[in-house]
Amino acid sequence: MSALLCLVAGAVCFYLIVYYGVFRGVGCSSPVKLKGKTAIVTGSNTGIGKATALDLAKRGARVILACRNKEKAEAAAFDIRRESGNNQVVFMQLDLASLKSVRSFAETFLKTEPRLDLLINNAGVMGPGCTEDGFGAAFGVNHLGHFLLTNLLLERLQQCGPSRVVTVAALLHRFGNIDFPLLASEKDLVSGQSTWHDFQAYCSSKLCNVLFTRELANRLEGTSVTCYSLHPGVIYTELCRGLSLWLQLLMMPFAKLFFMDPEGGSQTTLHCALQEGIEPLSGRYFSNCALQQVGAKGRDDALAKKLWEVSERLTRLS
Question: Which residues are catalytic?
Fold first, then answer.
């Protein structure tokens, strides 16, 4: 019996060491208040996007929940208003899988909202399928949709500066790759359809997020707008809802035990959005509420510039 108790105690200690030492992140310590400021958070009806929107609402911001699903987003807005005591939390329709929807959202926002201080590019997908415009889902939603959205709102961000653009990337960007000939021929970052291809496409889309932020910072140098990309941590969210059922069931026990909850996963996003004094680090990559080094491809300025130019053509900005 004593041996069993020792085994259990050892297992619990191991779990606590791994969870708090590896998986659990650092919290955002910024005391900044946001009364009179406006923030957009994409994909904010659930997960770390909703947790981010809730924190911003508690700080007094007017928060726009930019989401595809009207019913879920309105329910999230109700929850956030109730919990924060802030009635300035509203839903606006945005489907990042449709460039037409992105343009419609931007047009509506610019007509109805006089300010934009924070743009949080949070939404992300992993899984099969294509966007309305024929791009691979991960590339189209995670990168192209946010690329177009940011560019359409950039003038308003500059007018309201100092302002920030925060893009949720991932540590997995290190495994990403950008094959421009393949992108030109297949409108995707990978060729083939399987769970492995979906994973590769996700990693590559996150590399796009890092490179987009790097080039955006270069283009915004000398302005009042700064931008940051980040790894939110290993989070238990709905991101993998596009994966097969058996894979989701396989992951669930491990995820429940070790992954951070959405509130924990929102902390580095909030740090990048709120922390004073990080303006000189525009274009850089954060994790655990601290500056981190990106993978070699994520530091390639020539690659970042080429991706920007290709993205301009694909979204018909140029």
Answer: 202
Is it the case that residue 271 has pLDDT exceeding 60?
A: yes
Name the percent of the chain lying above pLDDT 90: 79
| 100-109, 200-209, 240-249, 285-294: least confident range | 240-249
What are the extents of the domains in the chain?
Answer: 1-315
Q: How far is CA 310 from CA 109, 296, 314, in A?
A: 26, 20, 6
Which residue has tokens 């940051």?
A: 228
Q: Is 230 helix (H, G, I), strand (E, B) or coil?
A: strand
Q: What is the CATH number of domain 1-315?
A: 3.40.50.720
**Cα separation of 64 and 177, whole Å?**
33
pTM: 0.86
Given its phi and psi angles, is residue 148 left (phi above 0), alpha (psi -120 to 50 degrees) or beta?
Answer: alpha
CB 113 within 8 A of CB 88: no
Helix-, strand-, coil-residue percentages of the chain, each rounded to 5: 55, 15, 30
